[in-house]
Amino acid sequence: MLDHPLYRRDPMSPQSLVLELLLAEGDGAVPVAHLLAAAALFGISENHIRVTLARLTATDMARSPRRGQYQLGSASQNLAADVAQWRQARQRLRPWSGDFVAVYSPQPLPADKTAQRQHARALHLLGFAPWGAGLHLRPDNLEPSLSALRQRLLAVGLHAGASVFCTRDFSPTDQQSMAQLWDGDALNRGYQASETQLAQWLERTPTLDLGQAARESLVLGGAAIRQLIFDPLLPAPLVDEAARNRFMDAAIAFDARGRAIWREFFAAVARSGRAPSSTPALETTP
């Protein structure tokens, strides 16, 4: 379901590491020297990175706009644009009236396994949960309109033959069943645990050397961002919205600090021409 490397949870694989760094750069390009220096922090060889870049380029997931530099390719653009919206997640929400959005998938789905995976990924990414054969639901509190939500689903892989529509007036029995589609308690615990973890790491950042801080910030920050990307963005009372907002604020602050750390790390690489094997403690200000 979550097969695209932009969504994988292993930032230490060569492919995921390269894509995370290219994604962080946005429309810009990343020098190969920076990719190799970052790989060294994770014990990934230069050969692995060069082979990975060749494969990503061959599938148009990455491109080289100029010699020695890489950026995301067209095959990654739609998903990359969607991933990059995590900071604006709250702006995509609106008050919940109690209605639901339903997606009815064609039965059976086409035999194309890639299309099936993309379809399932789109539903999961936008917080839909299965409810009956071919039917997925989520609260109608996401995106400015049903049309906007439909377009976003299609952009990230929903099968074009699927129907997307609003539904309401469920029976009390159905409403009780639908409330169990998401584990709100688990989501709330996740918000609190991740907020605490990010805050504790930021407190001890000044004691870390630059290489360790860069490595850990990528791992922890990547995990927090993926948690937000896949959060179903449910309304109250299904989840504690205040707890989610605190976690979002913590993730945004952590991301800003992590970016500053990596800028400092790459500046050190530019000065020395390689990944520093031993680096001084970090500066105490971002």
**Helix count, DSSP H or I runs of 4 or more residues:** 10
Q: List segments where confidence is low: pLDDT < 50 over at least 5 consecutive residues.
A: 1-7, 278-286
Computed CA radius of gyration, to the nearest angstrom? 21 Å
Beta-strand percentage?
Answer: 5-15%
Q: What is the number of strand segments?
A: 7
As laid out across the biggest beta sheet, the strand order is 5-6-4-7
Reported for the largest beta sheet, the result is:
4 strands, antiparallel
Give the arrangement of secondary structure elements.
Elements: H1 14-25, E1 30-31, H2 32-41, H3 46-58, E2 62-66, E3 69-72, H4 74-83, E4 100-104, H5 113-125, E5 129-130, E6 135-139, H6 146-155, E7 163-167, H7 172-179, H8 184-204, H9 210-229, H10 241-272
Antiparallel strand pairs: 1-3, 2-3, 4-6, 4-7, 5-6
Helix pairs in contact: 8-10, 9-10
Provide a quick synopsis of the model:
By secondary structure, this protein is an alpha+beta fold. The protein is 52% helix and 10% strand. Mean pLDDT is 88; it is low at 1-7 and 278-286.
Task: Write out key terms for the chains shown.
four-stranded antiparallel β-sheet, globular, single chain, disordered N terminus, three-stranded antiparallel β-sheet, alpha+beta, disordered C terminus
Structure description:
- The chain is α+β, with helices and mostly antiparallel strands.
- The protein has 10 helices and 7 strands.
- Strands 5-6-4-7 form a 4-stranded antiparallel sheet, with no helix packed on it. A 3-stranded antiparallel sheet has the order 1-3-2.
- The two termini are 37 Å apart.
